[in-house]
Design a protein that fits this description.
This protein is mainly alpha-helical and about 120 residues long. It has two domains: about 30 residues, no CATH class; about 80 residues. Helix content is about 70%, strand content about 0%. It is built from six helices and no strands. The radius of gyration is 23 Å and the shape is elongated. The N terminus is likely disordered.
């Protein structure tokens, strides 16, 4: 049995699927690096924003009124003392902060590399 070099699939199984695999190979050959794919994937989001809004997003800071609560939850988490409700709350804040950080990084990238 001969294996296809790219997919390690027996050639006999590829016989009726040459278009499928040629399309897949074409897509793979035009694939972007992961960061380029991320930029393409977020393009529709940033198309909704003006350059001024993108700038504001890049400089956005978290809610200062939450800093005390986050510090309290972080300390309890480090001590292993979070209740299930507090754990869910803390994870929600972490997820929101991660999302904000990713969007801000993308906003800074787009501001530094404007599209023609």
């Amino acid at each position: 049995m001969v294996l296809h070099p790219i997919h390690h699939t027996p050639k006999c199984l590829l016989a009726g699927h040459s278009r499928l695999f040629s399309d897949r190979i074409r897509i793979m050959s035009t694939a972007y690096e992961p960061h380029q794919a991320f930029h393409r994937g977020t393009a529709t989001i940033f198309a909704l924003l003006t350059p001024e809004q993108t700038e504001r997003l890049s400089q956005l800071r978290g809610d200062p009124t939450l800093e005390g609560r986050l510090a309290e939850l972080a300390e309890k988490a480090n001590d292993g003392d979070l209740t299930p409700v507090e754990q869910a709350e803390y994870e929600g804040y972490i997820e929101a902060n991660n999302l904000l950080a990713v969007l801000q990084a993308e906003a800074r990238f787009r501001l530094a590399n404007p599209e023609p």
